[in-house]
Amino acid sequence: MISILLATLLIIPASAEFKCSSVPIPTLTSKVDFAKKIRLCYNSDIKTPLPLLAWGHGNLGGGPLVSSYDPLMEALIGDGDFVVATYESCWVDSSCLRQGQGDFLELLKVIEYFTNSSSPESALVDQNLPVAVSGHSSGARAVLIAGSVRDNPDTYVQDDKFQDLMTPSLYAAASKIGAIISNHPDKSYDPGQTPDIENFDISQTPTLILTGSKDHIEDENSAWKDFGMMSVKDKIYLNVLDATHNEPINGHRCAGITSMFIKGFMLGDEEAKKSLYEIPDGSEFPVAEKGDRNSPQAYGYLACSSEEGVTVPTEDASFCEPFDFPIDTAFRVGVGDDNPPPLWGGSQQWSSTVKMTNPADSKDHPEWTFDYFYDEVLGADLYKHYDGQGDEVCKKVKGTKNIECWVLNANNGHSYVRGIEEGTCCIYPMHLGMVKSDWLVEDGAVYNGTKTAGYGKDQVVVDEWLAEGAYTNHYWDTADGEDRPVRFYEFKGEDLKQWDFIAESFKEGAPGDELFDIPEDCNSLCF
User: Fold this and answer.
1) Domains of the chain
2) Per-residue pLDDT tens for 96-125?
3) Model's pTM, two decimal places?
4) Residues 442, 443, 448, 453: is their CA dihedral positive or negative?
5) Where is the signal peptide (predicted)?
6) Fewer beta carbons below 10 Å: N end or C end of the chain?
């Protein structure tokens, strides 16, 4: 297969220079105006307009980190003679519309810019050709969502709030998609990640799903289930043996098959298309076996075809039909169901050491550790910040900055700030208030499935809950029924505020009444 691939590819002259640059995007007719910049990559010796490959980056891969994909872009351009463009926006999923569900709009905006404008950059692109879309992780999910928009414009996201953001020009951009390549995609069957899941389907556009047997970031077999959600006849599944989730960044081994897929299915190269229906020989990458992670039912390479008798391996052809498995029952549990949101910390009385990451409120001191004591029965909680570890409250108060500082939300309606080393104490002018144990219930938190996560070596299976407040709150607790807290986080704009609860420090039960005693002779205001 590889030898045929190499024979079909355009040889780039030695003088060609690979170039990438960040390009601002002006406001277009679209109501969607998130993608302010794109990263554009191409060979410097372009003499005629070339096909466009629009790329979607993964979570935490936006902004300047988009450049981490440059080696893959260079491999794609060298193999396939494309122009590659990706949005730099949505650098973390939580900074994009609806926790990253809206990433596909960024992708369509890129296509719109290159196919519906007269910009200098769009002159590099042959606007008469279809557009290939590819992406990694959450960007790989974005290209699948964009593909569903392309194939089902009259039914998909019609009743969803995204419909208010779609415009004729964005639908026109979606209609130009001619091939889809999804690298290590998120769970398309998770309503927390895919909008309007009942109407999701890629039914016409040829699609290639790529994953690896050592991808432990995505849930096991999630890419296989994504493959099984699509009814399109021309689709290929490749599970690369020992490839990790970051194979598109670290390995670049699938650039060749990506190029061949685009050439064969989008650009009409029959030799390239024919090569896709031969079992890979392993010289470029080894293929996982049946039973390996992410190949539960079939060999790690399955090339399905709309042409009768072409699918390989023939014995796995039955898996080309959409799978019959429950899509969303595990993700729709919420308030009032059998799996209600947990209490904060799992109980009304507990304590834990917390690793704090908070550039949102403390940009010059974004990380510190504190001990947290919680007792809703007494109606109080206490933060013990040690030398040099104070939060933004401690740093505002005279006599508590950069020393051991305790912040007590007492049950008398006051918050007290104490400088332990200096023996200072004052009443904070505004009562900060303790966290309510049932805040997840009160805020209507919804269940967002399980994942393997944690802090440091403390890796456990957790349940994730999402609650909408001033910001979207994420809360993780152990999925073993004990509800031990693992992580809380939110994004204030693009700035993170995160608590990581250290497992070995967690103690359930009353921390001790004396911890919450109101300090004597502490009557003056801090300011």
Assistant:
1) 2-324 (3.40.50.1820), 344-516 (2.50.20.30)
2) 777 678 889 999 999 998 987 777 788 889
3) 0.64
4) negative
5) 1-16
6) C
